[in-house]
Amino acid sequence: RGSFDDIEKLYERGVQEYLNIKLWRDYLDYVEEHDQSVSQCSQSGLSKMRDLYERAITAGGLHVTEGSKLWEAYREYEMAILTINDGNDEEKAKQVQRVRALFHRQLSVPLADIESTLAAYKSWEAEEGNTRDPDSQVDDVPPNVLSAYKKASEMYNARKQYEDELSDAAESEANKLQVFLKYIKFEESFGDPARVQVLYERAVSELPVSSDLWMGYTSYLDRTLKVPAILKSVYHRATRNCTWVSDLWVHYLLSLERIRASEDELRHVFELAIQCSFPSMNEYLNIYLTRVDSLRRGMPTGLDFELIRQTFV
């Protein structure tokens, strides 16, 4: 039992480090197979598994080329629950609705194999006895689902050229970086932060020591998302991957101050920063001055001046 907890914690650390669809799939399979409450389909097991699938979808469900692997796994899980559901008709109807809702959600997301998802949905509805003609393109697909599907298809087609360029640029990191930067700029112009974030996560998982990407990602989050937990996580990873980039440390400190992090947290990050090896004296100077300015701004809240003096010394 202890080893299950240890392995689960390791998966948690892994999925929080980088976006990797295969790792999420392995994690989901592992919990489904080895967690007793899940394999016995108890109420708590069902809730736990669904929560984990929802987290996986939030993290990677928008990944244009690989996101469908997470949606499919989630759907298969709910379908398996449906087949072993020997409860009353009301329970069964609820479960059918769960599977249908997952299909509908997936069909509204621009993913590479969206057409085959529509075909799978129609044949599933046919099996459930809810359709007249499984070969027809639009028959019996609710109009709201159909219009969401058409919009998602258009969105996918608009992104396909970038996805093709990324798969072509596999051999050269410099090329790949340029494609990612173009793609990110394109995605930012649509103003959907969740899509931009997934694209940045894809980029930094493939080019983890690109300071251009980390600088772009963190400043994007500072400007638009401003969610403390996400900002801390991304800055933490950015400064761990690019320890030598003083601007990242400076922005990290300023960002922590903006989200009203505690003095302990600010001091901890400052201490980490000055232990790094920077190319020149100016980088250290910038970090010290950022720290002093931050302490000075904090004085009205009762920080003692002695701390500023020590930092100057």
From TrEMBL:
Keywords: mRNA processing, mRNA splicing, Nucleus, Repeat. SUPFAM superfamilies: TPR-like (SSF48452). Its main location: nucleus. It holds the Pfam family Suf. InterPro entries: HAT, Suf, TPR-like_helical_dom_sf. Residues 3-275 form the Suppressor of forked domain. GO terms for biological process: mRNA processing; RNA splicing. The keyword Nucleus applies. It comes from the Eukaryota. One of its GO terms (cellular component) is nucleus. SMART domains: HAT (SM00386). It is found in: Nucleus. This is Suppressor of forked domain-containing protein. It comes from Aegilops tauschii subsp. strangulata (Goatgrass). The lineage of its organism: Eukaryota, Viridiplantae, Streptophyta, Embryophyta, Tracheophyta.
